[in-house]
Amino acid sequence: MSTATDAPKSAPRRGGKAPAGERVADWADGRVGVYSLAKANMRKIFPDHWSFLLGEICLYAFVIIILTGVYLTLFFVPSMAEVEYEGSYIPMQGVLMSEAYASTLDISFDVRGGLLMREIHHWAALIFVVAIFFHMMRVFFTGAFRKPREINWLFGFLLLLLAMGTGLTGYSLPDDLLSGTGVRFMEGAILAVPVVGTWLQMFLFGGEFPGYDIIPRFFVVHVLLLPGLMVGLIVAHLILIVFHKHTHFAGPGRTNSNVVGMPLFPVYAAKAGGFFFLVFGLIAMIAATTSINPVWVLGPYRPDQVSTNAQPDWYMGFSEGLVRLMPAWEIVLFDSYTLNLGLLTPLVVLPLMLGALALYPFFESWVTKDQREHHIAERPRNAPTRTAFGVAWLSWYFIALVAGGNDLWAINFGLSINSITYFGRVAFFVVPVVVFIIVRRICLGLQRRDREKVLHGRETGIIKRLPHGEFVEVHEPLSQEKLYALTAHDQQRPAELPAATDANGVTRKVGVVEKVRVRISRSYFGDSGQVTKPTAEEYREITSGEGHHH
Amino acid sequence: MKKLSARRRHPLAALVVLLFALATTGGLYTALAPAGEAKAEASDSSLAIEEGKKLYAVGCSSCHGLGGQGGSDGPSLVGVGAAAVDFQVATGRMPMAAEGPQAPKKPKDYSPEETAQLAAYIATFGPGPAIPESSAYNPADGDSAKGGELFRTNCAQCHNFTGQGGALTHGKYAPNLKDVEPRHIYEAMLTGPQAMPSFPDSVLPPDQKRDIIAWLDAVNTSESPNEGGFTLGGFGPVSEGLYAWTFGIGVLVAAAVWIAAHTAKARKS
Ligand code: HEM
């Protein structure tokens, strides 16, 4: 049906007006300028690479969490008032519990679809943070945080912190024995803060632990404050992506000043829409088949009860691990004031750990003094020091994470919990260093192999015997496309200290900081930090003398 | 007969034969098994003590001493009672096989009859808790909700919320209580094996013990319902996190790779 034939027929009836759709569009355009907005944004290009969809997984998981969360909010009662359970789960009937816990049991057993919603909500939350990690690592290892995207990196990192906070508060809401133990743990950490600890604790809990305030307060933070902040930040994150445009991997025609991919409308939008339903479906499938946080067997929280295997959700697991690794040291000051180092040290190490990763982009830009914009996603091997740092950081994080489950590894693998803890303490300091060294080597090796491939071609696995009896492997030259992809990255030169004397023969003063920077820059870009990529001359020289080289 | 052999190849024939075989074995078992128990009951108690003494001399005295006075390899058994012997021997913990942080549960060495004889003999060393009557530990008579509260107060700090087990120091552990026989749960509470404290009736009256057994029956046997679906071993956030990091993100990344590979371009080629 084309508008051209419709228009004359309808024209007399509607008093010469344009079709409805057009009028609505006109109206909107006149007020908010949708036409120019749409024209600019529907043609936004999005490159095709699976790792660029990780951010989308985060986005969709977030949407799923909001949708299911709204449903749960309809039935959840954020109150610590005590009631006797009378619902349909027999092994809890007659038990005294908070309304929060009772309503969680009701959602699980007496609200239609409630259990499925709870499980989708919780699984989506766990997967959300895993996806954020994957997404963040994609951005990190491709150097997509470099100018002009530093702010977006920070927005992203803030989203990670907020996601952790939202998870922590949500996990605590049902007021079950497991999460209550977690809240108690948190209370202990707050009390360990010197000077203001006790005051902070009283302020947060509205009195002695556990009191009646913490669940209602967590509820507001969990359903309103943090999600609100996250929505705002996600919008800002996405606006910045549209503004900066997406990075892409180097290839013929894919340069630092363009983006090659599918336009947002219609191809990309269709794919993205389909992907949303795929993500929703897969998470729903996991939730429908696999139990998560079965609070009904955990019992209501009571300060006089504890259980083994009490762990937080995985994204807080590293904080649990830091505490389990730290020896329970105490210092008594002036015979009266106790510093609880067992909790205080993890409390200091935790932000340092997260900060090390969050601020790395700024460290790198300080080292490189690079002012150019970067829109090409770098291959991890071409930035060995950065890649090594990233993997080392991950190993550091995972040691803390694994230590958080030390009792489970002990019982399931027949190990001693004490040995695991001692091992973890050593590993926490040693493993990241070892990983750093090894990964850097591997990257350099891969660079060297790329160089070989460019100059001598691909090993075909075909062995040829030359007339004089020598065996050689046939090497096949790479395609132009491959050659481009392997040599497109730019390589920085190491920084140098300025000459000791300036043009007038006056000795120059070089600050300590600058000296350190030059040192670091050398280790990044000196001969030990990268393998020089083949130049066009080298390539021509070798290919013209083809035959002798293999 | 002809009819029967004609049906031999019927698709359901195998099933029928299987059911028949199962029914026969089951029937044989029920016909024979109680006979053994009946014999044990019938046997004179002093006879049982005599038999027990012989078994003890061979299997236990090397560590626990000839008169149960104990030695360098095993503690004194004076006053441990028949309940402790029944628990230790029927769960296979005794005779202890190898040095280790803790004597583990293993396939049992003695038949129920021999176990009863050992128990009868060791009970003569000194007064101790007797083997409970079956009415004392029938889960159907207990209140699982009360039992849950008692379990969380008295047992969860070692055995976990639902008795999934937990690690103690230096390689010791509180075992998973899944499918442990009610009688052994009762005896464990009564006698406190190894690192576990004992809960005599003055601390935990018999009806409360039965409530605890009812709770474990409701949440931690092979037949207990798993309302939420597949439980991932019931280890809580650690196994859930592991699952999210492997299967969860795995299928989503696979979906992402698939979506990215199917571009509009790909259709043309
Ligand atoms: C709530 C969590 C998050 C959501 C919903 C989200 C969403 C997205 C989306 C949809 C994209 C574009 C697709 C892509 O490149 O994958 C993107 C890009 C980006 N994200 Fe995130 N993200 C989140 C968290 C993070 C985190 C934790 C970081 C890093 C600390 C981060 C840093 C970035 C950067 C720098 C880009 C631009 C990448 C490029 O242009 O190559 N984001 N984000």
TrEMBL record, chain A:
One Gene Ontology cellular component annotation held by this UniProt entry: plasma membrane
Region (Disordered): 1-21
EC class: translocase
GO process terms (BP): respiratory electron transport chain
Reactions performed catalytically: a quinol + 2 Fe(III)-[cytochrome c](out) = a quinone + 2 Fe(II)-[cytochrome c](out) + 2 H(+)(out)
Key words, A-Z: Cell membrane, Electron transport, Heme, Iron, Membrane, Metal-binding, Respiratory chain, Translocase, Transmembrane, Transmembrane helix, Transport
Ranges where the Cytochrome b/b6 N-terminal region profile domain occurs: 24-250
SUPFAM superfamilies associated with the record: Transmembrane di-heme cytochromes
InterPro entries xrefs: Cyt_b/b6_N, Cytb/b6-like_sf, Di-haem_cyt_TM
GO molecular function terms noted in the UniProt entry: metal ion binding; oxidoreductase activity; quinol-cytochrome-c reductase activity
Key word Magnesium present: no
Pfam families per the UniProt record, alphabetical: Cytochrom_B_N_2
The name this protein goes by in its record: Cytochrome bc1 complex cytochrome b subunit
UniProtKB/TrEMBL annotation, chain B:
PTM description: Binds 2 heme c groups covalently per subunit.
Membrane topology: Multi-pass membrane protein
Positions annotated to bind heme c 1: 60, 63-64
Residues reported in the UniProt entry to bind heme c 2: 155, 158-159
Compartment(s): Cell membrane
GO MF term list: heme binding; iron ion binding; quinol-cytochrome-c reductase activity
Catalytically driven reaction(s): a quinol + 2 Fe(III)-[cytochrome c](out) = a quinone + 2 Fe(II)-[cytochrome c](out) + 2 H(+)(out)
EC code: 7.1.1.8
Keyword Repeat attached: yes
Keyword Cell membrane: yes
Domain Cytochrome c: 47-126, 142-220
EC class: translocase
One Pfam family linked to the record: Cytochrome_CBB3
GO cellular component: plasma membrane
Known partners and oligomeric status: The cytochrome bc1 complex is composed of a cytochrome b (QcrB), the Rieske iron-sulfur protein (QcrA) and a diheme cytochrome c (QcrC) subunit.
Identification of the protein by name: Cytochrome bc1 complex cytochrome c subunit
Natural source organism: Streptomyces lonarensis
